[in-house]
Input
Amino acid sequence: MLRFFSKIRQRLLSDNKPSKYLLYAIGEIVLVVIGILIALQVNNLNTIRSEKQNLNKYLEKISINIKDDILTAKSMLKSRVEVAQLCQKAAELIVNRDFSEQTIITNAVFAMTIEQHINFNRSGFESLKNSGYLRYISDPKLENLLYKYNNAVDEVLYEEASLQVWANDLELELMKNGFTAEWLELDTKPNRKLPDLIGNYSKDLYQHPGHNITLALLLRGHLFPAFLTGFYEEQITIGAELLIVIDEYRK
Output
């Protein structure tokens, strides 16, 4: 192709036709420019295609994370409701001085003080942010939902952590004032494994400072899920909407 154009130039020069040569030269320059523009356009299309493929991979990972997180949130919500019912029953037993179901009282206190580990996986979203591909999202709704969902997760984790810190502080106080040892009869029945620890809540404990702390713990355990439910439901709702938007965006 280059040899062909070279022959044309040489022939025009040898024929001593400068005006035609000038027109030819301009035409050749135009062809070169058009070729460059086409090459740039093809390169841009390839870059856009590659960016979209990479972005879709991040969004796919985020979708997997959200699906797992929704299952975790539903499980935690169910667990909190069950603990609330358990705490209500235990509080009623203590208030009514009914000591016939010691297992319920023990399980309720343990359910409130034993830490529940929550593992929401946000590795996909963090990878997307760190990659810089977040700026390639052309759908404002998708970008908004990504941040909205992660904020909802933050709120759930914050409220759960606040409850756990508060419960741990009360548990420590019960240990310091000797209530736990007296209630679980650790002095008279030592070396028992955790599953075998059934407390002996009796009227003798009502005068102990730990009695009111225990009631406060159970009352919070009963009331808190009603407050926490809204945060979990918001996370689940936003997560479900985000999954739909991601799926539509990736098509």
